From TrEMBL:
PANTHER family: METHIONINE SYNTHASE, SYNTHASE, VITAMIN-B12 INDEPENDENT, PUTATIVE (AFU_ORTHOLOGUE AFUA_3G12060)-RELATED. Coiled coil: none annotated. InterPro entries: Met_Synth_C/arc, UROD/MetE-like_sf. Residues 179-383 form the Cobalamin-independent methionine synthase MetE C-terminal/archaeal domain. One of its GO terms (biological process) is methionine biosynthetic process. This is Cobalamin-independent methionine synthase II family protein. One of its GO terms (molecular function) is 5-methyltetrahydropteroyltriglutamate-homocysteine S-methyltransferase activity.
Length: 412
């Protein structure tokens, strides 16, 4: 489908309202200690918040909105994990144990045997340990709404009611705002499997078990006529969670299993309703040990999605737009480069946004670019700053569109 403008979207998470954060904080836990109970009052608040959010996105110039991940519990203003921890609420076979993937002890890899260490043992986190442990450094890791469980039995999907609520809320918002479509995020098997496992006999078996679980979400979202965005930072940021640094060849082999499991979960689903989001971790740290995008871009393009969302606006990854000079974007695929970033409080000028868009349009074609954000803005920057960034995104896309589509009439 052709058009005469640059569509705009974002990476999923948007700042929750104070009322929604307070309502999540007030929810009680089920007997398992990590599943948050729902009430009719909470569900009503959530529905109204999503409907209002979709209209606000439209008003700011976003043409492909999401539900802001509002159905994924965030009980604190700063929370970098809601995109992941929501999955615990929707999966049977998990329980709290002594294991925590964030604070567990170090685990060392060796050539030919790549293993993930704990989050606390990341190479960037250990190199800048003084900064990460200094509450005045500006590096905030936030607080998650729930604890991290471990798989102690066969896992299965139990989130049908919660997902139906997410779908209904977004569709209600789209109808009220008179917008044709939107997207809902869902976790990837590779990212989901980074919790404890006391049941499955191998890492690969555990990843594929998650693929069967999460396929339930992917299928329901596309069958509802919406776009599903697969969130999988692990494809890139696992690199920093391997200590010592592995060879690129070992890392690609390690990651290929996760790509294959995701494609297994996506089998038979329409690619035009699937987009894939990869990032290097949204915490505001130095990120000096991020793997280069050029090393993993072929793996990313091997995922059966119609569009690919990635970081392209922050100081660590903006230079990597040049990799598209040497790679042919597969026919029918679309890029969603981040043109505003979650990693700075500075609001990007619309002209800079337009220039970033035009770089990609010049390399892969103006019809193959959707302007997005590096990562989610919710839980990472102040709501007022997030709104200003989305407004700048919309304005910059309009600038770029006028220049790129001069003299073109819309057929969509």
């Amino acid at each position: 489908m052709t058009h005469d403008h640059i569509p705009t979207t974002h990476a999923g998470s948007l700042p929750r309202t104070p009322e929604l954060i307070a309502a999540n904080a007030a929810r009680t836990f089920a007997d398992d200690g990590f599943t948050l109970e729902r009430t009719s009052e909470f569900d009503g608040l959530l529905t109204g918040a999503v409907i209002d959010l979709v209209q606000r996105q439209k008003d700011l110039g976003i043409t492909i909105p999401g539900d802001g991940e509002y159905g994924k519990a965030m009980s604190n203003a700063v929370d970098y994990g809601a995109w992941w921890t929501y999955s615990f609420q929707r999966t049977a076979g998990l329980e709290l144990t002594e294991f925590n993937p964030i604070t567990a002890g170090p685990l060392r890899s060796e050539p030919g045997n790549v293993r993930l260490t704990s989050f606390a043992d990341r190479r960037d986190w250990t190199r800048f340990a003084a900064a990460y442990s200094d509450p005045e450094s500006g590096i905030h890791l936030g607080r998650n709404a729930t604890s991290f469980p471990t798989a102690t039995g066969p896992i299965s999907y139990t989130g049908h009611a919660a997902l139906a609520s997410d779908i209904d809320n977004l569709k209600s918002g789209l109808e009220a705002a008179d917008l044709p479509t939107g997207f809902i995020t869902a976790l990837s098997p590779g990212s989901a499997s980074r919790i404890g496992n006391d049941y499955y006999g191998s890492e690969e078996e555990f990843i594929y078990a998650w693929a069967d679980v999460l396929r339930e979400e992917y299928r329901a979202i596309v069958e509802a006529g919406l776009v599903v965005q697969i969130d999988d930072p692990s494809i890139a940021e696992n690199w920093d969670q391997i200590n010592p640094e592995p060879s690129v060849e070992d890392y690609l082999r390690f990651t290929q299993i996760r790509v294959e499991a995701l494609n297994y979960a996506l089998r038979g689903l329409p690619e035009e309703q699937i987009r894939f989001h990869v990032c290097w971790g949204s915490w505001h740290g130095p990120h000096t040990t991020d793997i280069e995008f050029s090393a993993i871009v072929d793996l990313v393009l091997g995922i059966n999605a119609g569009a690919y969302s990635f970081e392209a606006a922050n100081a660590r990854h903006e230079h990597e737009w040049t990799i598209w000079r040497d790679r042919q974007l597969p026919e029918g695929k679309v890029l969603i480069p981040g043109v505003v970033s979650h990693a700075t409080n500075v609001v990007e000028h619309p002209e800079l946004v337009a220039q970033r868009i035009e770089r990609f349009a010049g390399l892969v074609g103006r019809e193959n670019v959707i302007a997005g954000t590096d990562c989610g803005l919710g839980g990472r920057i102040h709501p007022d700053i997030a709104a200003a960034k989305l407004e700048s995104l919309g304005a910059g896309a309009q600038l770029a569109g006028r220049r790129l589509f001069a003299g073109v009439s819309s057929t969509s």
